[in-house]
Give the backbone structure.
Amino acid sequence: VSAAAPALVRMPVWRARFVMAGLVAGFFVLAARSLYLQAMQTQFLQEKGEARYSRVLEVPGTRGRILDRNGEALAISTPVQSVWAIPGDVRAGPAQLKKLAALLGLETRELRRKLEDASRDFIYLQRQIAPEAAERVARLGLEGVYQHREYRRYYPGGEVTAHAVGFTGVDEAGQEGVELAFEARLGGTPGSRRVIKDRRGRVVEDVESIRAAQDGRDLQLSLDGKIQSLAYAALKGAVAAHKAKAGALVVIDVRSGELLALANVPSFNPNNRARLAGAQLRNRAVTDVFEPGSTLKPFTVALALESGRVSPSSPVHIGTGGLRIANYTIQDPHAETVLSVAQVIQKSSNVGAARIALALRREDLWSLFNRAGFGAAPQIGFPGEASGRLRPAESWRPIEQATMAYGHGISVSLLQLARAYTVFARDGELVPATLLKSDVPARGSRVISVQTARQVRAMLELAVQPGGTAPRARIMGWRVAGKTGTAHKQENGGYAEDKYIASFVGFAPASAPRLVVAVMIDEPANGQYFGGVVAAPVFAEVARGALRALGVPYDAPLEPVPLPGAGEEAREST
Amino acid sequence: VAKLNLLLLLVLVVCALGLVTSQHKARKLFSELERAQARAHELDVEYGKLQLEASTWALHARIERVAKGTLGMRTPDARQVRVVGVAGAR
């Protein structure tokens, strides 16, 4: 082997050029690629990158609270946890499943069945459980089991305020009552924001707010918790004592038109709506109409007084054997053959009211009823407010004009009736009713003159004295005034012989009315059915408590009010 | 020229470190803010719960039951109540 001498080899020039061109080409490829990534795909890549650290967080918008006029809570939302799972991902031993089922309040079998359905990606195991239980579920550390936060609505007032406040569904949207009526104001809208999270899941930077969360606003109702509670208890007691089907009660503040109480029986517990029947849910005071009966007589008499045809002391011929119109006879159980106009109200005479009405123009009667708010929804913003039925005057036949005078052939809701009585309580003005707290006295619309209103008021005060239909409505310390109603219930187009609606509408104190209280008891079935016996005592109980709660000064001597003795209570014609 | 470059390099390094610290501080403060906000929310929730509890305890029906049953109280007769007018009220 000879030592090879290094020889200077001359390389062909093309090889160097080839390498050079290769490098340049490589460089261009790189440059083009980077241009492509930087300029053309930049958005996509940035998104991908951000997805590694940026997260979109939901920001909950809480639903507003509902408060009573004194700021006591009637409905509050509070967070609860809902537990969900991805069935295919759940790895848990039988012991763990048993524990989980116990925490969720499920049967182990049921839980297993839920988890077996591997075709689904998402399944709720249990919605809305208490935060404590949720924490224990989290501590089990099961794979594939997750939680998310929801809000649940609680109603501390329970059945007492159930109908007025209403309730929300599981997704927190209003379904009934105020919750539905003021949904737009109460409801919050959840928002979302983009944040940067670090390796440990902590939020380190707020990037942007995608949608601002909007909390619902609080709503203060006109209801007074104390009066409401009192009203509900009194009504419930009366419905039970008289074995009635149902009852409703409305208390209106005469000055402001605010509803201080709105109670219905039967009621329900809005916190636990597992078994609810339609009858319990009905807000009778607002959505149900009935033939009011004698509680409408004061309006007929007011119109007669307005027309100047009669004065409170004018005689009205009652006669015996009733009043015959066409082939129909209006009955009257009263012994007197002649009553004064005031006594027609005091003793609630149907024939008397009919005679007074027949002397009036039907258009005028219709117009008065209309201005008193009958036949039109009271517009307090409640869902399903009944407007009642007031047929146009042209279609009234004489017999209808006569029966309308004592509240038959017309239907009203209890709320309408209570509001209409503000006409007498407010010296002739009808006040707009409201469910929301207002601090200013309401402006009413004039329906009858001050003088007429005062005259009718005096008659209504007579009705609760011995010799009237409702001596049981009296209370110690305050003068009251009011009118009973006892009407046969309408059924299948006719009147049911043995089913009645007993009612009483009154106000107190009579010298300067502050409250209107209307009571309606549906189908009292314990022997008694007269409004003066069934409904008037409820009025007395509620008015007494409410006047005391409001600190209204006395206007009557402080003497105990005796129960009416024999013959001191006038029988009402139905 | 070399000296100036060195100085600029130094300034650059100081600036870079400053940026890092300020970023770190901002993040720390932000997470503190986050925590405070979460706490505020928690307190809000608790306030709601306490309000709920308070109104459950203060149910009028319950108060009446306790007053009548446990404490043996009763509603005063109208004769035992005096209503006084406040000066200035109508």
Notes: Chain B has a mean pLDDT of 86. Residues 2-57 of chain B form the longest helix (56 residues). Chain B touches chain A through 23 residues (CB under 8 Å).
